[in-house]
Amino acid sequence: VTGIHAPASLKGYEDVLLSERERLFIEQGGPRSKFTLGFDYVTGALDTDLKVIHYGPQTLGTFDGTAAGVPNAHYEAKTSADLAFTYTINKNTKFTFGGTNIFNVKPTAQDPNETDNGFKYDSVQFGLNGASYFGRLWVKF
């Protein structure tokens, strides 16, 4: 964003119309780079699926802003991985177990007073809950 063009009646209120925080969200609401590399290996009845996801760095504004002396929130580049195993029991039944973010990668910690959720981790690209695991049963009737 290179300029805010406000009507004459709102001159001087440009920072209210589009604060530094909102401008940075428009410019960097998502990282400028994201890479996903996937591997799928099938042998017999077992299917293994691995995804490696890399998110580039990003900078977001804070509620108080740099004018109030609060630095912008900088999020470091991070890499996460998801892994799942699917076993085909028969043509109508499959069982999957796996995990997302299996290495428990978390966003860069921030000042809780400056995040959307009041927690030290903001909900950027890969969430703030860390690793999660699951089981899934697929049945065709």
UniProtKB/TrEMBL annotation:
InterPro entries: Beta-barrel_TonB_sf. This is TonB-dependent receptor. GO terms for cellular component: cell outer membrane. Keywords: Cell outer membrane, Membrane, Receptor. Its main location: membrane. It is found in: Cell outer membrane. It comes from Rugamonas fusca. The keyword DNA-binding does not apply.
